[in-house]
Amino acid sequence: MELSDQEQFRRESLKELRAMGIDPYPAAMYPTNAFAAEIKENFKDDAAEPRQVCVAGRMMSRRIMGKASFIELMDSTGRIQVYITRDDICPDEEDKEMYNKVFKKLLDIGDFIGIEGFVFRTQMGEITIHAKKLTVLSKSLRPLPIVKYKDGVAYDKFDDPDLRYRMRYVDLVVNEGVKETFLKRTKVIRTLRSVLDEAGYTEVETPILQSIPGGASARPFITHHNTLDIDLYCRIATELYLKRLIVGGFEGVYEIGKNFRNEGMDRTHNPEFTCMELYVAYKDYNWMMDFTEKLLEKIAIETNGTTKVMVGENEVDFKAPYRRLPILEAIKEKTGYDLEGMSEDEMREVAKKCGVEVTSSMGKGKLIDEIFGETCEGTFIQPTFITDYPVEMSPLTKMHRSKPGLTERFELMVNGKELANAYSELNDPIDQYERFQDQLRLSQKGDDEAMFIDQDFVRALEYGMPPTSGIGIGIDRLVMLMTGQQAIQEVLFFPQMKPESKD
Questions:
Q1: Rg (CA), the chain
Q2: CA 130 to CA 371: how far, in whole Å?
Q3: pTM to 2 decimal places
Q4: What is the mean pLDDT of residues 334-340?
């Protein structure tokens, strides 16, 4: 491995520390009792006695001023200044030379150190720790990309997206705001889980490796189980297993977990993504729209203190209620074409007139989906329920109670993208089997996203499933909205990347 001059220098410092009897990677627990943000928040100028603290973190800057120095220490909560003097750290005369060598020459920016001392305010007004003891906790062998400014111009910025996503550990250290995005992600999921738990629904886990990839129209990842000598699929959705649990007697179940789809990658798609799916017995899609509005309004308030969030140039307001618009009306509203009653060939002609690429394998449902996706989806900025999808697009959905040929389904569009998909769930096993057969015919025509026939799921329905409503919400896209991010890679700690070049 070729090393830069700085990397070679740091390895030499590592050797010297060990030669001096200092373990640069000690195993013993370090007894921290305070954090940077908390120290600043609770500091009192009129305290009877200065507060004694023990903190640990990375050394992010250092200003050496003769016998005294200032460093900036960064822990998990933020940064705090530390004042260090040679006489305090090494009161014995024979140790002073060791201090000069270790602190001034062998420690580097990015090293983890522990500081014991007391808190005071400097003459410049900055809350600071006066160090009485310094402990080396971990030597950093690579230099951090510290941003430098000259004449108002920033140098050495760590802002290349490929490097940031590939080396998230560095991105989190040096770029402000990145960690806060992921803390908000945690808050979004915590609030979501809290609302579902308070509603009385049960969180469950279902298989990730499945013999049949069901519950969505998507291309799966395939793997092989050696012992059973069978191919298995990484799940594309949790739906069919969760509905089996409704058959089994649960009234409301949900799962927050990873799904995997072997499809394209872009600013809103990652091959593995987090989804929440919820199924509630004795409800329909109208109830689910009401529930979803209240859920998202609550998450927005808990995450941002308001229902309004800025996503790029768009202000999105999650305050309920949301507009409800049938998909064929949406297409007519945006394109002027009324697809209701059209044949497959007529829809294909409309698609071509709208500049939408189509293939011979596409049935009515796929054509409507493509036309809507290309001409309408991106125009819905405020939360909008697109409802009443044709049966060809919805093989797991109950037929509409008053609109022949349509189903009781909605997709929630926000900021031009789908955020949620929900149904009044199909619970007629004969109808379900026939819909699976239709999907098989699409597969035989070349549609590699058509659903498989899940015989066991049909068998489960034959034992009886009560009227049920279900929804899937993309957690990654939800976090994007709540944090104002416009790329899914910004809300995934480690998004999928191409292999690093070996050049």
A1: 29
A2: 66
A3: 0.90
A4: 94
